[in-house]
Description:
The protein is of the alpha+beta class. It folds into 7 domains: 5-40 and 863-892, no CATH class; 55-92 and 666-694 and 729-838; 98-128 and 601-664, no CATH class; 134-138 and 512-595, no CATH class; 156-262, no CATH class; 266-375, no CATH class; 381-475, no CATH class. The chain is built from 24 helices and 49 strands. Strands 41-40-5-46 form a 4-stranded antiparallel beta sheet, with no helix packed on it. It has a 4-stranded antiparallel beta sheet with strand order 10-9-13-14. β29 and β30 (441-446) form a beta hairpin. α2 crosses α24. The longest helix has 53 residues, at 840-892. It is flat, with a radius of gyration of 43 Å. Mean pLDDT is 88; it is low at 1-22.
Amino acid sequence: MASLSTKSTSSSSLYATASSSKRVTGLMSGLDTDELVKQLTMRTQSKINTANQKKQIALWQQEAYQSVSKSIAEFKSKYFSSSSSSSSILNASFFNSNTIVNNSPYVTINGQASVAQNMQVKSISQLAKQASFIASNKVSTQAIQTGNIQSEWTKSAVTGASIKINFENKDYTLSVGSDGKTTQAAQVIHQLNQQLQDQGLSDKLSAAIVDNKFVLQNKDSASTSKATIKSASDSLLNGFGLKVDDSGTSITGSTEINADYFTNHSIAAGSKLNLTAGGTEYTFTVPSTLSLSVGKEDSLYYKELETTLNDSLKTNADLAKKVKFSVDETGNVSLNSTDGSSVSVTGGSKNLLNGLGLDSGGAYSTTGKVDKSALYKSYLGESLSGANLTFDLNGLSKTISFNESDIANFQDPASLKSYLQGKLDSAFGTNKIQVTEKDGGLAFATKGGSTSDTNVLTITSSSKSGVLGMGGALNVYAGESNRINMNKTLRDVNANFASPLETNTDSEGNTALLSEYKISINGKEFSFKPNDSIDTIMKKINNDSDANVTISYSSTLDRFSVVAKNGGANSKVEIKDVTGAGNLSKALFGASEVNGEAGQDAIMQISFDKGQSFETITRSNNSFTMDGVNFELQKTTPTKTVTGSDGNPVEVPDMDPISFVVESKNDDLVTKIKTFVDDYNAILNAVNTMYTEKKPLPTEGKFLPLTDDQKADMSESQITTWEKKAKQGLMFNDSLLSEFAQEWRSGMTNFVSSVSGALYQIGIEAKDYKENGKLTVDEDKLKSILNSDPEKVSELFTTTDGIANRLQTIIKKYTNDSLVDTGKLISKAGSSTSKVDQSDLAKQMKEYDTQVKALKVRLTSQQQYYYNKFSALETYIARMNSQASFFSQNSSS
Length: 893
């Protein structure tokens, strides 16, 4: 009987994919089943190998084409990046072989040297100046003003909540709670109406409370336009009794307003109780924010609270074995021992102590009564305790700490003011920063006499959440300073304006900003809404060509400045508030009507004929171009007083005219042109090498891409040598490369009709036909042409039918990487930088992948078929052997 054999499958990944397990073979027959199956399926495996080899060849071809495209792209970037760039071969200044030597402190020039050498500047009597205005007012109150600070408060549940409505076929999103303190239905309604006003809907829709229900109504009773709730935050839907897709000219909540949904209903993470159980001290800490249901029956709510507290106990395994919370259906709370040991409460967070009724006048108990409102509250001292707050004064950062041991000193706004004043005095020195109570919060202002106006104070960060930001204990954002915040809206920044914006009283009796503020800049009217930021206002004005001004803000000086962009003597800065549309100009610039300082033109005397005559030139800017020469006026020239022919004093130039020397830089230009020719040659040589390289001789063998089986039996160096041979001649006689090379040569060397010239006339030509168009540069001849006729060199390249434009056309024809008018090389092989490859070769490779996938399925099926056959043969042989053994035993007996 044959021995048991376990033979490994082929190392080829292509083959192994289909036959991936070891098999017991030849148990009865002695046949090498794996090898037989491999031989029987060799034809299919060969087709897989062939398809993969074709794919590999296509990939190598793609890499070859893409290497050409990359070289051309680099050439394009170097010489055709911008027609206005001096490094662009399209620009005549590329061929400027002369340099203007200019050492004058009064004017700098560059450009056409041949023109500049005939120029002389006799005087610069006046520099151009644009009309301007610098506000004298301080824009802000120059204090960091916090929002309302309370000793205890309940956080808002609608901070950043929104309702998305559709009205007259347009969607609008109305957001509320931006102050972090919104908890009342009336506050939410007021903010919704503000949002309707900001989005231009206040004359069409209004939100209101009617019979304690929410109503969103079309204000025009004759209109049939409906509003539809598209989406909304759960807190607003539940609180107002609304549903998504509610629609009508009047949408009314299905239930009375439940303001509980607008307030926090969660126990803050980090809330703790100090306990003693069995003589051991423990701290029970709420590991993460525990949200409890709103609108649930009390009995169910209390059971949920009990479960939530006991789940939190499990984070301290030892404590969880000793105590548990019980909350009955009426809200009675008890903290019980589970092992018979004594339990006591020794302290903790106010929200847990008060909310569970465990604190009675400072005497802690293990029993109490649930107080929902107290359970959800936040407390000033606890919120600040352990936090570090960083201030920055004129670039000097200092961190102050709210020490836990000092908690009694910052539990209310009054004591907090004193605590902060002491800390800031210690950090920055006395008489540097003053803290005062103002408008229900705190104000931080700098001190220091006349220099205090330029001191910039910023609250930069806090080490603990819940201190800064929306709903934070200090109710002020990180990054707030004693200056105007450019990113805040007019509504949010108004309290910080030294001259606040005009307001009116809305239908609800609330003081509100106007629906819009209009301002005129040089006759151009602008309109801004309360939800526009200062930055938005500045950008809109600065980007408007009719306004023709640039507004900037100095945080150091706390004032705005305005400068006309251009116009010189004709420029102006005229700003005014539009009558009846607010006082934005006064708030920003200190006056309802502003007339800036007048502008002026630059005035100079210049000669274009080497001083034989002079012309008086005026320009509205100090930078300008005349006859191809670029001027930059730096300062006025000196003058002296002499007695004129009429006996009166006259101001005349007190210096010789400024002249300009031109130096030849032909050597540098020859180097630039030679480098350009070398880069051209490099591309041509690479393409020529590809399409002229022949395949290995038949005597050397046939080199196809290696299969995985073949690679498994070869070393890395052998694989590298083989693949080098396999790639040889891959692009031989390639028609696309041959076509490109021909056009590349023609674009460079063909006759330029508009100037009746060609490169060979200036010393650039192909010397040896065997080098397939490679150009050489006769430097002596090129220098001679540059000395005698420099414009001819420039025109050969830069005219409409010149070499530069021809090469650019060729580059686009072959490498344009876009969906429209795709270049031939890109269509053929794609680009190495493209995210999506729709090239011909990419499609071919996908087809090969599809073939391989189908062939692998066929291979697996064939293998299984033959293994089944051989299995049946083994079974048959085993049966025959068994019968033979039976007959043998019977005959011998």
